[in-house]
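Run: sequence + S-adenosylmethionine -> complex structure.
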Amino acid sequence: MPDITERLRAAGCVFAEEEAHILHESAAGPQELEAMVARRVAGEPLEHVVGWAQFCERRITVAPGVFVPRRRTEFLVAQALVLAPESAVIVDLCCGSGAIGAVLAYRLPNAEVHAADVDLTAVRCARVNLGDRGQVYQGDLFRPLPANLRGRVHVLTVNVPYVPSDELDLMPVEARRHEPRFALDGGSDGLDRLRRVAGEASAWLTDGGSMLSEVAEHQAATAVSVLASGGLRARSVTDGDSTVVIGTRQSARR
Ligand SMILES: C[S@@+](CC[C@H](N)C(=O)[O-])C[C@H]1O[C@@H](n2cnc3c(N)ncnc32)[C@H](O)[C@@H]1O
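>> structure
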């Protein structure tokens, strides 16, 4: 173990001791452990090497090539839980591994959960993580969702790619090499995908239903106006580390 910790530290792993422990626990034997350490030392994200990520106290399956759920996104989940009724209809778009939808399904046992992503590898992961607690579809944004969800959604979580294209090179090398560009690249100001979602969201939300998206702090003001242009009552919330924009469909009777 000290040897593994040293190899990880030399490769630049900041939490080398913790990672050595996780690798040790995850490997079935010495050969697999050596293979895992080699992958990690070569720069593969720990979560891809061991096949899971810790997210909201749950182990989320993450296959190589799928966006690794970030701990900061737990704030979006917490905001969604504040807004969701007990028997909520929940849609997790751009679901990646399905981490958000899976945690919401677990925390709200009576909720009806749907998730979708354009990427088949992500969809396969999300199916594992949601199991029999939700349906997962493949396709562009809202397109693959069943039409009978229109106007019925209480909570729409959409962790869109939001990194501005010219900031992708500033991302950690792990993300640039091992997560697909389409999972990160949000276009020139990072909000291209959010604009598309906001343009359609109110057609899917029920009266009083909300969409929630994570953005960078500096994008919050623009993102709020993007949601407002989609006809939603919009605001942003932050815990200092993570910023989430929330757009709520106002009652048609108001
Ligand atoms: C930032 S990741 C978020 C993944 C997951 N929600 C999470 O928080 O861990 C963005 C995801 O959006 C998906 N995506 C990108 N463009 C999409 C589109 N046009 N339609 C559906 N999904 C898309 C990517 O495949 C990726 O899984």
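>> summary
Residues 15 and 211 are 35 Å apart (CA to CA). The radius of gyration is 19 Å.
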